[in-house]
Write a structure and sequence with these properties.
The chain is mostly helical. The chain has one domain. It is 63% helix and 5% strand. It has 14 helices and 9 strands. The chain has a 3-stranded antiparallel β-sheet, with no helix packed on it. Strand 5 and strand 6 form a beta hairpin. Helix 7 runs antiparallel to helix 10 and helix 10 packs antiparallel against helix 12. The longest helix is centred in the first third of the chain and has 36 residues. The termini are far apart.
């Protein structure tokens, strides 16, 4: 139906706009947050001058991200003398596109009823209601891991096709590291699947809308605090960020698997990394922080303990859910950047030992304990 097409095109445009904004904004957040942590001023040189005036708009260095983008788009697209041209050209897109596709199955809001949100369009939309999610798939978590695993292929293609020893070494590091930590991420999520009994991300968010022990939000982080910690560590390693940035280690491999890339091809690798920070934040918010909901919040407003109720219009609920989701994602993104500027880099042997000899056994232990407790809770 044309109504469905209109809504889902709007969702797609919104998702792309949000991810591109996060990707650009996080380049500035990384500079400014690191400056605050190290008692520096940070990015403050790029500016926009108002026409016919001497007024410079600096805006705390926000224009640095735009300047970086313009620089990458105007630089020479240099290519190695000997390389596999097809794999070399495809690799950045294999890293970039799957990161965007993951967001398609993440619910970024609750239920949206266009007729209530825009009464003038009631005749066009009727009584249709749409969950704020681009693709409502029963196997949502499986889709996340399927698309996320494709980025491993992109990194391997980039290193292999460049015909450079440093690039190939970075690609081998990236492949082994990402496969190792993706396994840990999968094991941590299995605990939530046992608790909520579904792999549908929308249902998981709905299951977190109640309370735990009468006063705590029924968020995944309170059900599975240990798994939440392991998931965040594994996700940072999956994104190849410090302290797990060995595939791109500048002091050892120049830039790792994309050493031989320049201009916007290199920009796609770097932009995908920052967008993946936002995707990790969105996934963590969905799985462990209740998604777009606040404690005691429903599609009708707030219902607090004791019987007090705060009703809200449908438009207010929709806007609140969108803002709450984005605020939670931004908080997790900021935490990831805090980790990046706080910890030193591992050696590569330590990275793999940390995955297989420390995190993997702990994730298995958490899964076994969760399975036993879930069985005890359901047994008569």
């Amino acid at each position: 139906m044309i109504q469905d097409l209109v809504v889902y095109v709007a969702y797609i445009v919104y998702a792309i706009a949000v991810l591109m904004t996060f990707g650009t904004l996080l380049t500035w957040v990384e500079r400014k947050q690191s400056a605050v942590m190290q008692d520096r001023i940070g990015a403050n040189r790029a500016y926009v001058r108002l026409p016919f005036t001497q007024i410079k708009l600096i805006w705390l260095g926000l224009f640095h991200g735009i300047a970086d983008g313009l620089k990458l788009m105007t630089k020479e697209d240099w290519r190695p003398k000997t390389y596999d041209w097809y794999a070399y050209a495809v690799a950045p897109w294999v890293c970039f596109v799957p990161v965007l596709l993951v967001f398609a199955v993440i619910p970024f809001g609750g239920l949206m009823v266009p007729a209530k949100l825009f009464p003038s369009l009631a005749g066009f939309f009727g009584d249709r209601a749409y969950p704020m999610q681009i693709a409502r798939l029963d196997a949502g978590i499986l889709i996340v891991f399927a698309f996320g695993g494709m980025t491993i292929i992109g990194a391997m293609l980039a290193g292999w096709s460049s015909y450079n020893k440093f690039s190939m070494l970075g690609a081998l590091r990236a492949g082994s590291q990402m496969i190792s930590y993706e396994l840990v991420m999968g094991l941590t999520v299995l605990g939530l699947i046992l608790i909520y009994g579904t792999v549908d991300l929308t249902t998981i968010v709905q299951e977190q809308s109640g309370t735990l022990l009468g006063f705590l939000p029924a968020w995944g982080v309170f059900h599975q605090p240990f798994a939440a910690t392991l998931f965040m560590a594994a996700a940072i390693a999956e994104n190849k960020r410090i302290p797990f940035d060995l595939p791109e280690a500048e002091s050892e491999l120049i830039s790792g698997f994309y050493t031989e890339y320049s201009a916007m091809k290199m920009g796609l690798f770097m932009f995908a990394e920052f967008i993946e920070i936002a995707i990790i934040g969105a996934l963590f918010t969905t799985l462990f922080l209740g998604g777009c909901n606040l404690p005691y919040m429903s599609d009708a407003g707030f219902a607090f303990p004791g019987g007090s109720v705060l009703p809200m219009s449908h438009g207010a609920v929709v806007v609140t859910q969108l803002v709450v989701f984005l605020a939670k994602v931004m908080l997790i993104c900021s935490f990831q950047i805090l980790i990046r500027w706080s910890l030193p880099r591992f050696r590569y042997d330590q990275v793999l030992k940390f995955a297989w000899k420390f995190m993997f056994p702990l994730a298995l232990m958490n899964l076994v304990v969760t399975a036993v407790l879930a069985w005890m809770a359901t047994s008569p």
